# Entry
Amino acid sequence: MNIDIRGYRGTIEDLDELLNEIRGFPCTLQLVDARAVAGSDHALHGALHALRAFERGQNISSDPGIEICLRIAGIRQISRALELLGVRKGEMEICAILVDCETDVQEFLDSRFQRDDRVLEPDEDYLRSLYGLGEEVKTVGVENALIERTTMLQVL
# Structure
């Protein structure tokens, strides 16, 4: 299994068209709002937990990309996970999670968006507010608090 986490900046003009193009690839390609991700380790941790959930038959969604969103968000509600992490029309910072994708997928993303891994650097104040993080942040930090939520999702 090969998981690649990439950061991009760009404008999504037609969301439906973009999603249809993504569905055409024979791999899992999930685009999420990079602002809602606490770094590449957070995204990777969520992707690994999502894929393991499928292996164990404990997945919440039937779609691996949606499962990745659920795991990154650390919640079970698909609508809420998409509200937090979903891409939308307009200018965006994007975290792309590629699972077992060939170079044509990277080329597609590179042709549509500007590669910029700096978008994966977490805005801790924004993340604390977005996820309603509390006292645990003082002990473990924002990234580790969100990674812990992902881990706890499988226990619950």
